[in-house]
Amino acid sequence: MSAKRERGLLNFKLPATIAASLDDTHQMYHFYIVNTTQRPVERALEQQITRRFTDMQSVQDLPYLPYWVEKRVSSGTEAQALKLAEFLNDRQESPLFKRIQMANDPIGGRNKIRQASLVTMLKDNVFSGTNPIAIRESDPDKVHKIMLNYFRAVDSLFVDPDKRDQTIAFKTSGLFFFLLVSKWIFTEMYAGARNFTEEQISTVIGSALEGMDDYYEIADSGWWLTGHGASSLNRANARLIAEEFFQGLRRSNDPTQN
What we know:
Blueprint: H1 2-5, H2 24-37, H3 43-56, H4 67-75, H5 77-90, E1 100-101, E2 113-114, H6 115-125, H7 132-136, H8 140-158, H9 172-191, H10 198-210, H11 235-253
Parallel strand pairs: 1-2
Helix pairs in contact: 3-4, 3-5, 3-6, 5-6, 5-8, 6-9, 8-10, 9-10, 9-11, 10-11
């Protein structure tokens, strides 16, 4: 019936397990087990497979993909975010070097963020229409270098080098905040025709911090340590602080703003 509406389904291979000659009780038992204990594919592995489909798209014929999968593959944003996460995890000069729990990595290690969480945040805050990088930059290598410099600037401003293992700046809540404000930082940098060096990015971030009336304590690296101010950081109050950060950036450009 579905193939009558969508002819592509005729080429879709559906894996199946067939159990023959089961009585009603055993049929009911198998139905119950399958539908109450099944687990979805891990999100990180799902992202890896989507990325592979995206890479394959231009060089070979893909099997029929459901619309919702094809949409994710065609947009390419998930593949872009995953490649950036891999870049940040593999470069020794990156503050996120070996701190991302990639798909199929052994579980463990302190101060790690899951690939699935980071890729989702990168997709929503960097590779989206709200961030000028997604619109202005078409070279993946340049995007990777800009984001590396961005995180190095964050590291230099908000992380105490003697207490690096205690910071939450590069855990989920901290990364959510810094990726959330990145669109305003990069908008300011494009508007000012700045170079995307670590120093220039640090200058823009610093001007926003100086213009903040509230939450100015986030400029102190101690605030980002476990057991201090940022320990209570969640997405709701991260958005409040991000809004004040934005207002601080506006005030730094125009002191008459209030």
